[in-house]
From TrEMBL:
Ketoreductase domain boundaries: 7-200
Record InterPro entries: KR_dom, NAD(P)-bd_dom_sf, Peroxisomal_Beta-Oxidation, Sc_DH/Rdtase_CS, SDR_fam
Family named by the database record: Belongs to the short-chain dehydrogenases/reductases (SDR) family.
PROSITE patterns: ADH_SHORT (PS00061)
Tree of life domain: Bacteria
Pfam families: adh_short (PF00106)
The protein, known as: SDR family oxidoreductase
Amino acid sequence: MGILEGRVVAVTGAGRGIGRELALLCAREGASVIVNDHGVSANGEGNDQGPASEVVNEIAKAGGTAHANLASVTDPAGATSIVEDAVEKFGRIDAVINNAGFLRDRIWHKMSLEDWRAVVDVHLNGAFNVSKAATPYFREQGSGSFIHFTSTSGLIGNLGQANYSAAKMAIVGLSQSIALDMQRFGVRSNCIAPFAWSRMIATIPSDNPDEQKRLERMQAMSADKIAPLVAFLASDLAKDVTNQIFAVRKNEIFLFSKPRPIRAMHRSDGWTAQSIADEFIPAVRSDFASMIRSPELFSWDPV
C-alpha cells in the first residue's frame, strides 16, 4: 500500500521534467493521476499533445492509473476541466500540484509587457485558476492539499527574471492566504522551491563562466529528487503541515522562513524624513538584506 492509495492527484505541467517525475511517483504511491500538460515549449509557445499521453502510458505500463488533460492552466475553463476530469474519471480530487510554467528571461530594462503577462499568467494565474476549481470539492469533503511551486528567484532574487520572480513570490502569498482561509475545512496549502535541471533551466543564458558553472551544477540535480516531498505533502502523513515554504536541492530539504519584523524604533514625537535618515537608518543598517542572488546564497555543491 502506497501512501497515496485511493487518492486522486492532479499535476499541472506533468508532461516533462519535474512535473513528469511528480506524476510518476504519485502513481507509484497509489494515486490516480490527472496528467495535465498543454504541451508548450520552454518559453510557452506551441501545443504538443504528446508529452501528457506519454506519461499516462508510462504510468499505465507500470500498473498505475492516469488520465491525460491537455488544457491550459491560464484558461479558467481549462483549469476547471482538470479538476472535473479528476472527479469524472476517478470520483474525487485530493491534491492539486501547481507545477506548470515557463520562462521568458529578460533583463529588466528589456522586458516587454508581453514577457511579463505571459509568465505571470501561467505561474500565478494558473495556480489561482486550478486551485479555485478544486476548492469547492476540498471544502465539501473536508480535506485536500494544495502544493504550489515557488522559486528561490522570488524568495531570494535573481537576474533577468522580474516576471518569474514576481509571480513566484506572489504564489507564496496566494498559498499563505489559502492555508489561512481553508484551515477550518481541513485543507492544507504549502509551497516548494525546487532545484532541478529542466527545460526551463536550460533556457537561462550562460554567457559567462560563473553562469556556466551554475548550470553545470544544476545538471547534477535530477527532477526525481523533488517528488518525495510532493508525495508526502499530498498524503495524510502531512495532515498537520500547512502554510509552509520548503525547498529541495538534490538530497537536501530546506524549510524557509517568512518575512517578519527584525528591528523596530519608536520616536515619541513621530518621524520626519530627516530623523529617519539620521536615526532610524543608522540603527538598522546592519540588518539590511544584502544584494544577493539565489546562486550566491546556495553556493556549495549538493551531494
